[in-house]
Amino acid sequence: MNQPQAAQSPASQVDEAELAKFEAIAHRFWDPQGEFGTLHTLNPARLAFIGERTSLRGARVADVGCGGGLLAEALTRAGASVTAIDLAPSMIEVAKLHAAGERLQIDYRVQSVESLATEATGTFDVVTCMEMLEHLPDPAQVVSELSRLLKPNGSLFVSTLNRNLRSFMLAIVGAEYVTQLVPRGTHEYERMIRPSELARWARDAHLTIDELGGLEYNPITRSARLTTDVSVNYLAHLRRAEAE
After folding, report:
1. pLDDT digits (tens, 9 = 90+) for 108-132
2. Does some domain include residue 7?
3. Is residue 5 assigned to a domain?
4. Long-range contact set of residues 40-44: C-beta below 8 Å, sequence gap at least 24
5. Number of domain units in the chain
6. Whole-prediction pTM value?
């Protein structure tokens, strides 16, 4: 099967080294015991955070940085019409094949967020961007593009990692080196994002943060739950300003 070619993307959108990391292991995306097993565990909690704050049934949703389609499939099962984009062609191929096997209709594309935002400005009720911003050279610019996708009063949901000593010890030392829950080199401390930084980028992009929530993973029980502690993994619900 021929793989689609990734569209040309601005520097703010992609780090080629980061992209290569995920391309190399895309074929193992749907193995819950593999490198993406933690995401499989986190996904129900992520979906719950979204579903408790906005209606998904009948909503038009853009899942940006969709990977192999874990969240996109869950959003579709919840009743949303989903457009899911990623710049890793192998991930999109995996996502398409899995969705076909599950008989789910999802519009998967190898496309940048800048391109989608230009093509479909202001057309989505909900936009999701999970575990992506901390891998980008210019996350502030990408937040601006995510905002462009939203209808007035639309909701953006982001998950990322805080930047502090605790998150370094748990998300990098603990998860990558001690428990080996994720491959070494998955995260770089300097690229982790403090909530105050996200809030500043949001203001510049005509967004406001409605709510922050913590996402706690227990490596012993291999379970996840939503909390109020945003010191490590956290989720943010942002809202686009209403039209004047």
Report:
1. 999 999 999 999 999 999 999 999 9
2. no
3. no
4. 40/70, 41/217, 41/222, 41/223, 41/224, 42/215, 42/217, 42/224, 42/233, 43/70, 43/71, 43/74, 44/74, 44/224
5. 1
6. 0.87
